[in-house]
Amino acid sequence: MGSFERTFDRYADLRFPAVREWKQSRPGAKAIAYFPVYAPVELIHAAGMLPVSLYGAGDRLDIQHADARFGSFICSIVKTTLEMGLTGHLEPFDGFLFSTICDSARNLCFVMKRNFPAMYVDFLHLPHNPSSPAAAQFLAEEYRRILLELERVGGCQVHDDRVRHSITVYNHNRSLIRELYRVRTRHPEKIPTGELYQLIRAGSFLPVEEHTAQLETALAQFGSRSNKKRDSIRIVIEGSFCEQPPLPLIQLIEDAGCYIVDDDFVIGQSWFESDVPTEGDPLLSLATSYLDRSVYSSVRHDFRKPRWDGLVEKVRRSKADAVLFLIAKFCEPAYFDYVPYKQELERAGIPHLQLEFEEKSFTFDRLRTEIETFVESLIFD
Amino acid sequence: MRIAAGVDVGSTQTKAVIMSDNGGVKVLARALVDTGANVQRAAERAFDTGCQQAGIHSGDVGFVVGTGYGRYKIAFGNTQMTEITCHAKGASFLCPGTRTVIDMGGQDSKAISVGANGEVLDFVMNDKCAAGTGRFLANSAEVMGISLDEVGPLSLKAQHPVKIATVCTVFVESDILSYLAQGKTGEDILGGVHIAIAKRTLSLARRLNIEPEIAMTGGVARNVGMVRALEEVLGRKMLVSPDAQFIGAVGAALFALEKLDQSFESGIWRGDHAVSGGH
Amino acid sequence: MPFLAGIDCGTSFTKALVLSEDQGQPRILGKGRTRSGVKVDEAAGAALEQALGEAGLDRRQLEYVAATGFGRYGVSFRDIQVTEITTAARGAHFVIPETRAILDIGGQCTRAIGVTDTGRVKIFKSNDKCAAGSGMFIQRAAKYLEVKLEEVGELSLKATHPQPISSVCAVLAESEIINHVSAGITVQDILRGIHESLADRAGALLKRVEMTDQLTLIGGVARQAGIAKALADRLKVKVNIPQDCDFICALGAALLGLKRLAGKRSAAETAASEYAY
Amino acid sequence: MTEKKEYRGSIHQWQKDLMLAWYEQLDQAANTGTPATVSMMISGNCVELLEGFGAVPLYPEVNALQLAIRHQSLDPILAAEDLGYAADNCAYVKADVGCIVKGITPTGGKLPTPTLILCNFVGCNTYLKWFEHLAKLQQAPLYVIDVPFMRADEASRSDLEYVVKQLQETVKKLEQLTGSKFDYDRFRQAVACSSRTEELWSRIKHLARRSPSPFDAYFDAITLMGPLYVYRARAEGVEFFAAALAELQAKADAHKGVYEQEHFRLVMEGPPPYPYFRTFRDMFAKWQACAVASTYSTVGGLWEFGFRHDPDNPFESVARHMIAQNVTNRNFLQRYQQIRRYVEEWNADGLIIHFVKSCRLFSAGQGDMRDYFTKQLGVPTLYIESDLEDPRYFAEAQTKNRIDAFFEALEHLKTAASVRGGA
């Protein structure tokens, strides 16, 4: 699967070669970077721009300026994102889009605004009250506002059909991702998560059409594999929805005796549970889809169906033995959710282990010991 | 004869400097003792040694300013000032033209923007945990079984400096151990350690407007490797006084001299004794 | 009766233990202990030779070697590697069967382990973000106060007015100690204070592993009388300290080895019998 | 002398009595089930709406800070951490949850299970988690008023409509829960009361422009904040703040300041370290440094720049207050400008940024704020870190050292300036 290793090199490359190539081949075309999780990529795509998800800088950039701006107790992705900006790495982008996911990310939005006054920096308010009949209309308005800004930045007019087309394109892309996840849940030995991860992650910077093609090939290849099934436990990973764990850590988890049968890695790439309807007002359709169709996560609040129910369902659905909380250091939403998650898992008799990581960490001895112990405690009688 | 003294009680070492001003300010003596367990006694020892060296009687000293973390423990001090204020003053005396001070002590590191008259314009410090301080170096030396003085020179010989993951002074030990286990050379490991601290220190200093001249003070200034590492990340040379570790005490002594002609009431002299109801 | 070895490669010391099974009862035949240094494999070999010497055996008689601890993957001649948490649970449970909660205060990391009645790990928590509350904390204090590490325990027992240490950093705690000393507080009181703040930090971990009325204390620091007392006083629990507690993990490893070996055996026998059939 | 510098007029006792009366009402509610109580967050609270039901607000934050001031916050915090809360979770939440689990209350009296847990989400994502956990813990109904964050300078039409609709939904919800009809006139009167209280409070804030300032707009303002959030929309509130204004006005006219001699004027950013409230205050008192303005005193509402609730347009003005007129729902750069106005119009010598690890809403990015004020505006700025509830993060020696160094430097600058001025 050489192609995916290449993908890794490309997303690991902080000069964003894929983005530069895309722009070079389309004079005047714009690229918009967005902070992870729930971003309306359809709108950016419909405006003829390249949506790119910023997933921090991993361990490939020393924080030299950003920690003077964001002090102690702030997660790494916030700092490395700003660091990339302050060190010119974000030069290929024409705008940044942030949303309500957490307080640090929100403040980052406005710190970026101050430090890059020439740049289009916007903040999307995603409703936290889906039970209100007014929420959908509000969000549709909010999407419309953003679309107008994008039209201004791109100097273009975006008609509803363009948006509908983009919705269709992304619906297809996400349905493939959902299918890949289904296959892995059934045959984790066929699709090592380290590999799947890189494949999905590629979608954070590749043009969606190109990524969709990759997913199709991969799906074919994976299906035809016949890898030996190891004596491993089946786990669900929860908590890595924003800042991403280093790839070696993901591989280490499998290496230490776990099959990852479901996860919330780069969840922003696959955040609708079913297709977004293409008929009617496309913005309203996207809005209602966020409210009724998007996957749960610690940064989305819907008091009609608690997230912990979502997690327990996920474990049952994927026939997992246990849950591994893989939480980014200083990620407060994930810290908070751990408590009710833990309570509900224990009520349901599902074993779990909580681990903390930082995107920039590169030695994992302690984590390895904890994961192995966890596995040993489940396999040794 | 107008004589004053400054005593800087640091976490590891206590320094005393005796200065006189008869038409020209000059350092009569400098003394250095280990702080050890009894801060008060350390201050006295340093002060007395200083007086002996200067060949004067402690009674000849007109005013004593105490600084450093142990400053409130100096029984014979007339007033106290923070080491930040004193470092700025001392640096611009020993290294004229100083605009930025980078101080690396045993347990904290700080950066100070200094005005033309040695006044503090702005400062930042790292004092909540010992990450990236002189102690970090001392521990590394300890783990590798070499003396602290060898650390700097060795680090200069690094070919491929290793990457140091942790900044925790205690955890760096296990990092070093595993590198040794991987067969990395002491030079490369120390090189990595020095770069790690230098970068951390610089990112602290960046909170200020770093302006030349940059002076390095504190015990770590004696470490050639650290000076080099810092100059590399800074991209420019620094002023390093041979008396770097005495700068706090010198600053204190200079204030003590000024104090000889000033009244207790003028603002800057509001040491804790001077203020009613302070501590 | 098979001979097995468990080897625990810790950061500072490597411990080896040789055991055999005697009428279904594991019996310890020999122990070896050496500084880990930088070459894990050599240290493991040396410790093992000591243990074998004590047992009057030689290496070829060993049927199974289980490695555990920080350097477990570095033991080239191992049959299996298991983490020191799993082995601690097994070992402690073997020596003190009523063990349900284990506290392991290591050089850099303090760990609490909840154990099932069969010696399986139920849940564990470790504070390894920062050396606060680790054994290092005591080592530094001892060094600073110029007392031998061995004396620390006894001294702290003599405390009359323990002085709390609040600093979260093992290194910065020193400056607090400086203040205490210069405030004329006795070494005993300071050491006890250190033990107590250690006990409190450990208590927080132990709560998370559902400790009930007693705990089993292992790891090098356990040898200090003072910490055991501090734990008993502060946490109001019975503190068991297994004798030569720093061999617990090596023992646990050997015991797990025994299990695996038994497993293999029965498998082999069924295979053989089938063949004979 | 520590007593002397703290403002203690007749209103000081009055303030205590008001808060006590509030706790008594809550205790009564716990025992008898009336009045109805509604849990709310301080920031951008809509206490006016509750008046339409004669319901009493229940502020978990107030309980949390009361505990901290009384040095009782650590136990509940640890209790919460035993439940699995992380060291880096907001300690307000941990203290509050710990109290409920252990049955602790600040006064010893009872606290009711609220009729409704009303999460007025104004920027603080922690509020959502907090109230969600409370609802789970207390088995009480939860409703969220999702307030759009300030992404532009002003609240948009769609923002206002969205919040107004939710306020009306809240009314329906409360009608179901209390079984009583919403009293619109009483609501309008409440809004009218608020606008009067706000006018008085705003004038008090402006008294701090005087030199010397008659009160400390950080430490003393906090004593006045309790009544502001609980009684703003009631006659008691108007009365209380009228008296407060009169007293402080008299003090100002007599040129009486917080200290014999006001040596430094400061703007304070960030919540205070409640577990060391007194110690912290003393560190500034030592230098006769007086806070003339603070952002923390505007979490509940930002009134010194002219906003008032509007009885002729009650729902919309409540919505506007929740969206645009409290510091927590305003964006970071708007906070920069708020502080900038304080520094310039209240004529301060420097800015103190107090980073509290609990509150990322307040603290995330304060390094950039420091950068803006020191490098772009040349305002002397001190940045210190601790926490608003968790006593484990206050390093007394280090904090004192920084504060002393800051004032030593400020003193230099002032003397230099006066010398230049003299020459």
Q: Note the main sheet of chain D.
A: 4 strands, parallel
The interface involving the most residues is between: A-D, 53 and 52 residues
- Biggest sheet: strand arrangement of chain B: 3-2-1-4-5
CATH class of the largest domain in chain B: Alpha Beta
Question: Which CATH-level-2 architecture of the largest domain in chain B?
Answer: 2-Layer Sandwich
Question: What percentage of the residues of chain D does DSSP assign to strands (E)?
Answer: 5-15%
**SS-derived structural category of chain B:** alpha/beta
Helix content of chain D: 40-55%
- Biggest pleated sheet of chain B: 5 strands, mixed
| Distance from first to last alpha carbon of chain D | 36 Å
Shape of chain D: globular
Number of continuous helical runs of chain D: 17
Rounded to an integer in angstroms, the radius of gyration calculated over CA atoms of chain B is 19 Å
Task: Give the % helix of chain B.
Answer: 25-40%
Task: Please give a structural write-up.
The complex is a heterotetramer of chains A (381), B (279), C (277) and D (423). With 381 residues, chain A is an alpha/beta fold. Chain A has 14 helices and eight strands. In chain A, helix 7 (160-186) packs parallel to helix 9 (208-223) and helix 8 runs antiparallel to helix 10 (247-255). In chain B, the strands form two sheets. In chain B, strands 3-2-1-4-5 form a five-stranded mixed sheet. In chain B, strands 8-7-6-9-10 form a five-stranded mixed sheet. By secondary structure, chain B is of the alpha/beta class. The longest helix of chain B is centred in the C-terminal third of the chain and has 20 residues, at 186-205. Chain B has eight helices and ten strands. Chain B has helices spanning 39-54, 83-94, 134-144, 148-156, 172-181, 186-205, 224-234, 247-260; strands at residues 3-9, 13-21, 25-34, 61-67, 79-80, 100-104, 109-114, 120-126, 214-217, 239-240. Chain C has two domains: 3-89 and 247-276, 2-Layer Sandwich (Nucleotidyltransferase, domain 5); 97-241, 2-Layer Sandwich (Nucleotidyltransferase, domain 5), CATH 3.30.420.40. Chain C has helices at residues 40-55, 84-95, 135-145, 149-157, 173-182, 187-208, 225-235, 248-276; strands at 3-9, 13-22, 25-35, 62-68, 80-81, 101-105, 110-115, 121-127, 214-218, 238-240. In chain C, helix 4 (149-157) crosses helix 6. The longest helix of chain C has 29 residues, at 248-276. In chain D, strand 3 (116-121), helix 7 (125-138) and strand 4 form a beta-alpha-beta unit. Chain D starts with a helix and ends with a helix. Chains A and C meet through helix 14 of A and helix 2 and strand 8 of C.
